[in-house]
Amino acid sequence: MGTMTGSPPSDLPSSLGIGKKKLAPAYSLLSRQYSSGPNGEPSRRPAPPIRRLSNTPQPPRRLRRRLPTNTVIKFVPQQEAWVIERMGKFHRILEPGLAILIPVLDNVKYVQSLKEVALEVPSQSAITQDNVTLELDGVLYYRVVDPYKASYGIEDAEFSVTQLAQTTMRAEIGQMTLDTTLAERNLLNANIVQAINLAAEDWGIRCLRYEIRDIHPPENVVEAMHSQVSAERSKRAQILESEGSRQAAINVAEGKKQSAILASEAVKMERINEALGAAEAIIAHANATAQGIERVAQAITESNGGKDAVSLTVAEKYVDAFANLAKQSTTVVVPADANNVGSMVAQALAVYKNIGNSQATPIPGIKVAPKKD
């Protein structure tokens, strides 16, 4: 077999009804793939890459499976929607159950699953409002609510939703600080879901929820956060310790205060009791003295020799007192008639009598009770 040239052979049968001009491109391609070897044997060359030039829309990557063929009678599974085209134009959507198609004219173009789909959002980097770079990934849950829009409204719904989730996440994190991002994941998830639903309304897709799985700050930020937490805990421990010391001091002072109050109350009651006791003692002593004087006076008045006994007692007291003058003082004042004891006793009795008369004289404003017999 010789080497193939770039034009078809002249001995091609004319009975095929194919002109040489139509066979020239195909023959040229074959001549580039096959050529003669050193010994005249054909050798195969690598074929050039084939480029897909078809503009036919491809189903999403998740649904890139073999589409059902038209066998006139078809059974649509539950939670699926089949998009039927008739002569290249949208005709209807088959619901679960029995369906009858027209051969050649009807074609199953798209198969949409109506189940909830969990889509993993790849890890990406985002910068917060306080210029901290974070690595985040998440999971997106969505569902097809309109098979027509999901088939004709977008080329690859899965890829589009993933990209929309990533861009929305970057935009939302750019408006939040690091602390807010870590503390308010629920708010961030709700904002992402709202933004995705707003953009995917024309795609026939509704985002049910979005969950951030992991947030990875830089190592230096993590170390700084750990240091901040340690410092905050040390601060709380010191505050609690100081509060304990303060409360202990307050309790000690309160105890001392109560102790001093109780001690003063005890001293007060002690002094009051002492004063009451002294007063009662004075009253008792005065009553006893009064009763003694009253009995002496009664004895003096009722007995026959009472006055003489009083005179004798006064004389004895006078003599004893006069005798002790020299013992208690170096200066002694003696009456002129010290040798006359009788005159001194008479003077003493006169003094006694004058005192008795002055007591018997009534004082204005004071009533003297009559003596009892």
UniProtKB/TrEMBL annotation:
Annotated GO biological process: mitochondrion organization
Mitochondrion among keywords: yes
Record carries keyword Chloroplast: no
Compartment annotation: Mitochondrion
Main location: mitochondrion
Record domain Band: where: 71-229
The name this protein goes by in its record: Stomatin
Origin organism lineage: Eukaryota, Fungi, Fungi incertae sedis, Zoopagomycota, Kickxellomycotina
